[in-house]
Amino acid sequence: MKSSLNLQLGQTLTMTPQLQQAIRLLQLSTLELQLEVQQALESNPMLELAEDATTGDGAPETETAPGPETEAPAPDQAGEHESWDSADYGGNSGQRNDPDDRDPFENQAGAGGGLHEHLLWQLHLSPLNDADRRIGAALIDSINADGYLETDLESLQETLGGETEVGIDEIEAVLHWIQQCDPLGVGARNLRECLLIQLHSLPPETPERDAALRVAEHGMDHLARHDFKGLQRELGLTEAELARALERIRTLNPRPGSQISDQPPEYVTPDVYVRRDSGGWRVDLNPEIAPRIRINSLYAGMVRRVSDARDSAFMRNQLQEARWFLKSLHSRNDTLLRVARAIVERQTGFLEQGDVAMQPLILRDIAEALGMHESTISRVTTQKYMHTPRGVFEFKYFFSSHVGTRDGGECSATAIRAMIRKLISEEPPDRPMSDSRLAQVLSDRGINVARRTVAKYREAMNLPPSSERRQLV
């Protein structure tokens, strides 16, 4: 085979380190971005925290002259890099308050703790003796996240058996004490006992307390079957009396343990703020999403004065990486703001009227409007949050599929779910609408949606079927 050299022209896409960094920063959440900025500050001496404030629209301010205590940048730092060197990003200067200065009650609330820890804390504060506390700890260990006792007392008796025999009556007594702890009803062995514990704790003069006690004591099987007529006959109550008793029972908590979560609360920091002004809806970046950083002008000015070639190369590389990092941050903020404004422009109906006015929107719509790729829009809308007058929402919340309407238009799935939720909330309690009826009502409004689609949307909102929504009035 004869070998030869050929010249061929072509275009290829090269994934440069700068582009990789920009893409990675784009998909980071606010918390991840803060960690990334902190790591950059620790690893690159050319970066420093800035104490200047950013402008209202999220664009970085630039320094027009070096500060009195810093040296002017070297000549090669001027020109196209000048704005990057003096730019600062984010809004938090990185100052931290001393933990000891915080409210101790705030620290305790933030520390969280699960149901078991909450019950054990009450157990240790109780006047019970050591033997009863040992029984109480075993009982608490057998309580699930909903607050119910999962182990029978005989099994617990065997577990507690040792040199000193523990009687069932002793375990019952400690269990009764636990059931009066907070949250009330915890430690119950079934739903009936849970409701009875909560009802017995009500003052005797509480309206419908006695009737509700009779229903919980003798009518749970009828309630499970929604057999209200049979329940009336068995308890000798009128329809109005039974309705009021059931209303009292609905005020109780069937899962008392759920009031105390094992997971600490998760807080969301919005990336953008949406507010209304005289000219319409305004979108601004949150200045607190990351510490403000900039090029350290003192170190940057030392680059040309370093005599050692190896040290000079190291400092130049660090300076170049710092510039790339600042430029990637600026690109991230700019893209985030453009996408947020495009979303708000298309979802003004939601901001003014709520879910029922949500417009159909897909990633491609925003990508085409901004001249970006769908994958870029996907990265921007993941784990990014928007603070609006109606609450804080992830960017992805504003995207939904559509269903055709009778006049050839489109209605978003979010708007349809809101309509279904509103129809169910307004239906007669004794005559709830079936999925077929809901589909018919939507069809009368010009929205073509199948019964199976209605059922899917209803289940996604955790709304029970009509057979379970029927109530006695």
Automatic annotation (TrEMBL):
Region ranges (Disordered): 52-111
Stretches with biased composition (Low complexity): 58-75
Any one Gene Ontology BP term: DNA-templated transcription initiation
PANTHER family according to UniProt: RNA POLYMERASE SIGMA-54 FACTOR
Function: Sigma factors are initiation factors that promote the attachment of RNA polymerase to specific initiation sites and are then released.
Protein family: Belongs to the sigma-54 factor family.
Stated name of the protein: RNA polymerase sigma-54 factor
